[in-house]
Design goal:
This protein is an alpha/beta fold. The chain has 2 domains: 115 residues, Rossmann fold (3-Layer(aba) Sandwich); 164 residues, Dihydrodipicolinate Reductase, domain 2. Strands 14-13-12-11-7-10-9-8-15 form a 9-stranded mixed sheet, covered by helices on one side. It has a 6-stranded parallel sheet with strand order 3-2-1-4-5-6, sandwiched between helices.
Length: 339
């Protein structure tokens, strides 16, 4: 299917419709979006009317509702932000694209391969921008890291350790029809960042459970990812570590250079005998930067800040990681295009 030539037209103001006002949206994303100029909060939809009213009032939305279709059918809205539970993402993304809306959806993009291919078809028809909340690729560390390895010859070796902590057994992320597990809901972040740092797509994955006695086998896993340029990535996703240890640590090696990031607050960059350190009081994970990039693309009528092929590959890789946990084999990641 031939995709239309891209987003058409420019606009001075982005009319926003927000679907799903959960705690992450309220605490992180909506406040960050409020600080971006040229954004008008038109409508907000949430599952419960009381929550929708409260969030709409607090953040200055023009109206609130409990039916997402009301937002999708509103001509004053040209960009839809989706922050619902995971199982609703795909249908809302497709519904928004089919109505000519630009779409920002929190991760994951969807929860299974059939949904992923349906989204690909809708995206190909739409000519609209679609991006996923893979914020870490927008972090200052990611920018500095790509600059450090600019002009490299040869692949990267990447190690990503995540001290995830345990979730209660009844947490909705574990729910088989709502959250679909931690691999799909969280590990997609780390696959995407390593793909961004290597400027390459994942082509093969293999995953192993660390403790076969875990009630949830996705709580402690090791993942190996091979990328198209020969780079290799290892993800250690653990709930068994001490809470005193940092949540995320990333190490990147190649051609006499090394980058290390600790919780997106302290970063070290080494080139030969040279060393530079960056420190921040805040966790700089790229949330504001990803929203600015999306809004700018909508305003100026340009292509999405992230190629759909990359979103597709990172998402498909997480499905293959989950399958590998079950079968114990390395599995290929075949990205079918063009997009």
């Amino acid at each position: 299917m031939q995709r239309p030539s891209g987003p058409k037209g420019t606009c001075e103001t982005v009319g926003v419709g927000w679907i799903g006002a959960g705690s992450f949206s309220r605490a992180k994303l909506i406040p960050a979006l409020q600080k971006i100029s040229g954004v008008r909060f038109v409508g907000l939809a949430n599952a419960t009317g009381i929550s929708a009213q409260r969030a709409a009032r607090n953040f200055g939305f023009g109206y609130c509702c409990t039916d997402a279709n009301e937002l999708l059918d509103d001509p004053a809205i040209n960009a839809v932000f989706i922050g619902t539970r995971h199982h609703l993402h795909a249908s809302l993304v497709i519904g928004a694209l089919n109505r000519g809306k630009h779409v920002f959806v929190e991760k994951p993009l969807c929860v299974n391969e059939a949904e992923l291919n349906q989204i690909a078809e809708a995206y190909a028809r739409s000519g609209r921008i679609l991006t996923v909340g893979f914020n870490r690729r927008y972090s200052p560390f990611a920018a500095d890291c790509t600059d450090l390895f600019k002009g490299r010859i040869g692949p990267l070796s990447m190690l990503y350790r995540v001290n995830a902590g345990r979730l209660p057994s009844g947490h909705w992320v574990h729910h088989p029809t709502q959250g679909h597990g931690r691999v799909i809901g969280e590990i997609c972040h780390f696959v995407d960042l390593m793909g961004f740092l290597s400027s390459s797509l994942p082509v093969e994955v293999q995953a192993w459970p660390v403790d076969h006695l875990d009630a949830n086998p996705e709580d402690n896993i090791h993942v190996h990812i091979r990328f198209a340029d020969g780079s290799r990535g290892e993800v250690l996703y653990l709930s068994s570590a001490s809470a005193s240890v940092s949540k995320e640590r990333i190490e990147v090696f190649g051609q006499g250079r090394t980058a290390i990031c600790e919780d997106f607050r302290t970063c070290h960059f080494y080139r030969g005998n040279q060393h530079r350190r960056e420190r921040s009081f805040f966790h700089k994970k790229g949330h504001r930067e990803e929203l600015r990039a999306f809004v700018a693309a909508v305003k100026h009528g340009v292509e999405s800040p992230v190629r759909f092929e990359s979103l597709y590959a990172s998402t498909l890789a997480t499905f293959r990681i989950r399958e590998s946990l079950q079968c114990g084999r390395a599995l290929p990641v075949h990205v079918c295009g063009p997009f």
